[in-house]
Specification:
By secondary structure, this protein is an alpha+beta fold. 27% of the residues lie in helices and 37% in strands. It has a domain at 7-56 and 87-104 and 113-150. Strands 1, 2, 3, 4, 5, 6 and 7 form a seven-stranded mixed sheet that branches. The relative contact order is 0.17.
């Protein structure tokens, strides 16, 4: 090997790689935990599993961007490009470890910010694990948006 690729070269290659293939890794992992009865220790309420969802930023730059980047514009004219995911995990209040469920990229598509996958997160979890009883919770920001749109009290989605 004559030279080691730089970070920007690796990013250029990886940004173009489809993430759909990663879904099977997360699904297979949880299926193995279920078969080995290791997932049972995460049961929370009446045999259900608690699955909080939250967005997370994993890349940010003032100089580097791609067509899928989200943009934050500051009042002083600074622009920061970033990437985010919507991450679901299986948790239990008494266990320090969490079990990740396949993340969903949040990207700019055709000028709109959206979750890249066409299927809602709950439906994707249902498709991969149809018999898994889950309680899905969202963060306060999502709840306040949901309440403003729907005028409904509460924010527990299961």
């Amino acid at each position: 090997m004559d030279s080691i690729p730089k970070e920007t070269q690796l990013r250029d290659v990886l940004d173009q790689a489809p993430t759909d293939g990663l879904k099977a890794i997360f699904s297979d992992y949880l299926n193995q935990l279920q078969r080995g009865r290791r997932l049972e220790s995460f049961q929370f309420l009446n045999g259900s599993y608690l699955v909080p969802l939250d967005g997370s930023e994993y890349f940010s730059s003032k100089n580097i961007s791609c067509p899928g980047c989200l943009k934050k514009e500051k009042p002083v004219g600074d622009i920061r490009y970033h990437h985010q995911i919507l991450q679901a995990v299986i948790v239990h209040p008494d266990i320090k470890q969490v079990l990740p469920v396949a993340p969903e990229p949040i990207q700019n598509k055709d000028g709109y910010t959206r979750i890249v996958k066409s299927m809602p997160v709950k439906a994707r979890i249902r498709e991969d694990h149809p018999r898994l009883k889950i309680i899905i919770t969202w963060d306060g920001l999502y709840c306040s948006r949901l309440l403003m749109k729907s005028k409904r009290p509460g924010c527990l989605i299961s």
